[in-house]
Here is the input.
Amino acid sequence: MGRINLEGISKIFGSNSAKALDLIAQGKRKSDIAAACGAVVGLRDISFDIEEGEILVLMGLSGSGKSTLLRCMNRLVEPSCGRIVVDGVDVTRLGRKELLAFRQKTFGMVFQHFALLPNRTILGNVGFGLEIKQVSAKERIDRSMQAIELVGLKGWETKYPNELSGGMQQRAGLARALAADADILLMDEAFSALDPLIRRDMQAELRDLQRKLKKTIVFVSHDLDEAIALGGRIVLMKDGEVVQIGQPEDIVARPATEYVERFVEHIDLAAVLRAEQVADRAAPVLAPTQTVAEARTALGGASGGVWLVADGDGRLVGRIFAERLASARPAETLSSLLDLGQSVVEAESRLDTILATVAAEESVAVVGQNGRLIGSITSRDVVQALAARPGTHAQPQAGAQILSKPSGAPTWSGTSPNSPSTRSATTASTGSQSMAAG
Ligand SMILES: Nc1ncnc2c1ncn2[C@@H]1O[C@H](COP(=O)(O)OP(=O)(O)OP(=O)(O)O)[C@@H](O)[C@H]1O
Ligand SMILES: [Mg+2]
Here is the structure.
């Protein structure tokens, strides 16, 4: 549980909201609307889906609408128009009482300056939400202790907030949200007040926690490094609009606008590129059943120090060094010549985590989740990938979706660019005996 659908959400602050909505329908932008009627457009016609169990980061400059959008999701801010559906429940239609109950049950929130109650212990703070829900004392303590343990504060439960560092207090805030066991966590700049080192720890811990607990997390940040560290999709906002949605590497490779391009220009490519994107998929792959003569023919004049060998299902079985192939008898089958010392990395691995392996090996095999060989990576492939500064913003391609509405366009709806179909397109099957390019 934890799927959120946003459909045509706009938020107007100040007076003249009807006029402003009318202007939005005509395709006008935030600055035009401010000039025309003085209304502040907080959000402008936002539609996209947040998948169950994903970690999604809302990013953008100050004033771009991140907090407003986050708070619209549980109607702490009331959208001026549009629909929010959470697990099939139309949140926008809930009455006051139902909304309060739904919010308590479904959403946990963590803010930048998380206010712990000073006169309560950490245990008392973490269990506060459960107390309001009138959960029994025993269950409250059990669940609070579990959450305290999850965030690494075990042993501190009897202390008071002023006895904890800022980072620890932020953990307590996270524990409080976790103890309530809501499916969705809304986190607004939750780590921004922390020291850089502690902040990095917290990012890694949140990512691990999310994998373990499978919560849907919507995280507001204006820090690209933080968004990358959290490891999910990024929604880039500007002037109350969504400019682009995608995995960091898609956004870096294909920035939708100049604004996005500027946002990502100083990004550490090695931290966002994944092995499957760097892999050379065109290199020939041999079959263990082939004879040496057949392999030589298949390779034609191709040069290389080592060849990968995969079975009929495309699964890596080993490698053969070129010298071995050159010196073997033509009738010998490759299975008897295999070397099993091939280094393998997973398609999803970030480039920076595999650099040392690539540097130490002639070539590293990249395999998909199903164990199928996707391609191989040599040091040269890495250098090429890092040297290739992403293209200009004018090249919309599969994988990254561009979400700026042409002015006056009558209808528009965004779908997730991280859908299974685009995912599989980037992990092309390698069932055949050569690694398909692209
Ligand atoms: N309560 C409010 N009344 C009037 N205008 C508001 C209100 N809240 C937000 N706004 C306006 O809506 C726009 C979006 O604000 P929001 O706080 O969502 O931005 P943000 O991206 O979270 O920025 P920051 O990074 O500074 O937190 C801004 O133009 C802001 O001035
Ligand atoms: Mg904000």
